């Protein structure tokens, strides 16, 4: 449903290019702006297609390493559904500088601010899950905690840009590039790393090296903030995106140098990550079925799981079926 | 097929293969509906924006007969599936063939209409915005009818060899779901192209 508008727009473009059609041909009365609309009707929900699985990873990892059940599960689900719906109606906030009507600008500014509400609910629920928990800062948890902080900042710069006059000033600048990298790297990639470390023992049967994992985290965390924190500032100073060079003396030089130094840290972190995955595959400690004392079903089967997953289809009575098995005297289904 | 995989209709087996097939078809329909929506929006957006003729008012005629053919094929496919559920393969094959025939008639109607537009009215996909959006939208729908006819023909071939039985009713019904969708899309295309746009 999200990708379909892109499919349709691509068919139209192919008709224009190969059959001599006029969908986006301004010489024949066609509109280039409608291409932008069709593209972003796909393009913005696509961001949520990427980030919602990252949310799912955080919702698996944060409770296990806080030693608490997730806070406000039904509200979390409702917030995800809400994000899914609202994300379909925010696309033209990518197009404020095109020159739409004031009403259209107002609608897309408001819908964009509205998507911050369910997202904020999720942030608060993850924090409430950690609140009062016995937090273990293993590598997956470190990545998820950094995700919480970075996703908050990414969301806040997004709300800033939903304010139309502010966006007129900053559209097509490095501020935008910094904003969406905060989402794609700071939120999605961090959760992806968390997922790699969290399920590595389950997928391979061996533990990753915790010291190397933490080294990866700190290298990547420092590199990320050097690169993308400092990328906001040249954007605010007027540096446009999609340029490969600029004249000296505009005040962007030092900031861009810091951005580049950050890349070195990130690259080093990824090398440590790759080395850890490869080394641990052969030399890692045997993980066992359930190295994290977790509560979901994948941890009841062997590591790696057999092709058939479960010999008998397990009976699930609550959101934490493995907790119920471990604590028959105090199962979750009594409370849910 | 072993005895262990015999299909029963107990509630815990609701998520069997046929339910998965239906779910897959629903997903396909949602995705396709989104594609059609974009084409419909483009058609409506470009109404009256062509820089040269011909215009829809000058050249389009409402295809009443062929529309009746396509819409009634939704009824015949429904009757076909119902016959199959009641274990009447003969009636199923007859209704199914009638569905195929009505669908093919509709497609022939599109062919006749396009031939008239291209050779008599000089309207091609390159002529103007109307030509581009008209042939794209109606053509996209006709392509879906064609794909549906191919699928229907395959089932009909199986039926001719006596291979379609009442236990296949759910699968055949999944295909019928697609056919109903194609008909529904035509209602929208008909309204947009021949009623609103003319």
Overall description:
The complex is a heterodimer of chains A (336) and B (198). Chain A is mostly helical and 336 residues long. Chain A is built from ten helices and no strands. In chain A, helix 2 crosses helix 7 and helix 8 runs antiparallel to helix 9 (253-283). In chain A, 38% of the residues are buried. The mean pLDDT of chain A is 96. Chain B contains six helices and no strands. By secondary structure, chain B is an all-alpha fold. The N and C termini of chain B lie far apart (56 Å). At the A-B interface, helix 1 and helix 2 of A face helix 1 and helix 5 of B.
Q: How many angstroms does the end-to-end distance of chain A come to?
A: 33 Å
Shape of chain B: elongated
Order of helices and strands of chain A: HHHHHHHHHH
* Estimated structural class of chain B: mainly alpha
Question: How many DSSP H or I helices of chain B?
Answer: 6
Report on the biggest sheet of chain B.
none
Most extensive interface: pair and counts? A-B, 23 and 23 residues
Number of separate structural domains of chain A: 1
Give the proportion of residues in helices of chain A: 55-70%
- Radius of gyration of CA atoms of chain B, rounded to a whole number: 20 Å
How would you characterize the largest beta sheet of chain A?
Answer: none
Radius of gyration of chain A (CA) equals: 23 Å
Number of helices of chain A: 10
- Measured as a percent range, the helix fraction of chain B is over 70%
Choose one word for the global shape of chain A.
Answer: globular
Q: Report the order of strands and helices of chain B.
A: HHHHHH
Uncertain runs of chain B are: 1-12
Give the overall pLDDT of chain B as a whole number. Answer: 92
* Strand runs of chain B, count: 0
Features:
heterodimer; A: 336 residues; mainly alpha; Cytochrome C Oxidase, Chain A; 10 helices; B: 198 residues; 74% helix; 0% strand; disordered N terminus
